[in-house]
Amino acid sequence: MLSIKSNNGYFAGANAGMVCRYNKVSLWLGLWLLSLAAFASTPHSAVHAYYASSSHDPLIQQVLQVSNNPQFGIDELTTAIAQADDAQQQAELLYLLTIGHIQLANIDDAQIALQRAQKLVNQQRSPLLYHRLLLAQTQLLEKQGRPEAGLPLAARVAEWARLHRAEQLYSDALITSGLLEMRLFYYDKSLTWLIQAYEHASRTASQINPALIAEHIATAYQAMDNYESSVMYLQESLEYARQHENRLNQVALLFSLGKAYHEMHLDDQALAALGESAELAASLEDQAAVAKAELLIGQIYLKQGNTDSALLYFTKAREVFGEQGTSYQRFAVNYYIASSWILQNNVANAAQYLQSARTHLTPTLMEKEHIQADLLSAQIAAHDGLHQQAYTLLQHSMASQAALVQKESEQQLEQLKMQFDTSWQDTEIQHHQRIEALQETTFAVRGQRHLLIIVVVALSVLLCLLLYLLGAKAKRYQRKLNALSTLDGATGLLTRVKILEALDIQLHLATQREMKLSVAMLNIDNFTDFAERAGHKTADKLLGLFGKESLETFQETDILGRLANETFLFVFPNAGANEMLTSLNKLRCKVKQLPSAVYMDTLQITLSAGVVQVTAGDTTAQVLEKAGNALHQAKSGGRDRVVTLFVAC
After folding, report:
1. Sign of torsion, CA 396 402 408 413?
2. 305 φ/ψ sector (left φ>0, alpha ψ -120 to 50, else beta)
3. CB burial class (10 A; 0-12, 13-18, 19+) of residue 1?
4. Could you tell me if 632 and 523 are in contact, meaning their C-beta atoms sit under 8 angstroms apart?
5. Which CATH class, in words, describes the domain spanning 496-644?
6. CATH assignment of 1-163, among 1.10.3470, 1.25.40, 1.10.1660, 2.60.40
7. What are 421-433's pLDDT values in tens digits?
8. Are strands 642-644 and 559-564 parallel, antiparallel or unpaired?
9. Most exposed among 59, 62, 364, 524, judged by the fewest C-beta atoms under 10 Å?
10. Residue 7: its pLDDT value, please?
11. What is residue 569's DSSP assignment?
12. d(CA 450, CA 70)
């Protein structure tokens, strides 16, 4: 048993249980509890003394132990509040009660306790507790799904803590701001706050160990696909968890570290980290965490071509996910088992597990998973000799991929617009603040007209400069928006919409001016298999190199675009189909060398292309159909070739 002392006396606690965690973003609750303990029994006149004191305060450890059993703590706090002698004591205990209710996701009860505490606290007499309550309010807003409303409150607390050298509170406010930004998916802003908190905690006597913040920094980096930068912070957090024998956190950190190594193509390190994660999870009887690690281990073995080991791990993961996995996990494990059987040429088993995977797909969600399933179905159909069915599935997956790319592009555009609007609003606020400052200055220096003129002129220059900068910034954003809507981000070629628009224009010009016009449809053979084995990051690099080689091979007057995923459309004004065979075959030869450029010599890709010459009266749809038929002939004829509509080369 332990006792927690307040100004009113003691209330009993119990031995620690498992820490309640809402999710990774809400881990900051534990960080708050590190700092709130001392002021429950510290006079507010000694606030600065507390923040400059040693971190070895036994009260902090006692409150942390009670936080491990929040329901028991809530019962004891309720009794203590009823027995409190004055408003200050009640407010402190209500604050603790608010934290406990938030831990247990009792949002309504937390709101009531917080409002009661805020009514009892005077900002001038108890500034530290007042701002602690503001920070608790930001956490409550996050739980209510309103993180954007908590950001200004967290910034307000951070500014007060900085000015009053309340180091612990300042660290908490920085962490809170970073995690709120993360909930809003502004990972770059989140990193700014979290790294600032990490550096502050490293150089001050804060109760928060920098290793706890490092885990959140790693999470933000991984959300931005910057796995290499996340490794250093994950290793620091893992070392801290090992020192404190926190096996539950070690499981999660080892999995994240294994995932980072996997994305960096460091398979040996990835397998070691994931194996340790699975072993620890097994000792904790956390079968879901074991299966999660085994699924990723299986993917690594599958990428290496070790299908026997991959199937072993996938099968073990499937046994767990079948009972307690999500739809995504159940789809993934069945999909990867089917992929393994395909590599072993066991089409019957592959079809069986792919069918099982499809049962976990939802009609309107999981777009990428639908595309993966269609592509694997096409492989199975092609293996069975059902080439028409395979072609239809490929066309459907290409259309789905194009729709998904368009959707993601629109989301990126919307996010850029939101960031621009936010930046504009911030600038407007700053502008109004400057105007208010000018008005105050005018009243303060009414008798000093010469000085007032100098101030007005200086502010006018600043405003003009600000407007100039705003205009320049708006132009930069507009250029970015135009580039996103015109060029494909991966290859630097035209997007599907723009290449089809260009084809329409060229058809009109060719008819009007009686010019020759030829069109080629190209497809990178075995690209899906390459992406699965080399990783999507490496596949994206290869697409970028393909776009560069294409632009260097053809003339500036030629129009090059990406239709969907690994399929492209090239338009050659004033050129016949036979005239383009040499250039297309030159590009075909270059494509074979691309795996070496991305350090994947063991993998092979080739290029198939179909080129047709437009005849008078052809419509866009007819030209696309002819080019598609020519491409189909190239594929059917063995791939790695350029085919005109009637003549193979």
Report:
1. negative
2. left
3. exposed
4. no
5. alpha beta
6. 1.25.40
7. 666 766 676 677 6
8. unpaired
9. 364
10. 34
11. E
12. 64
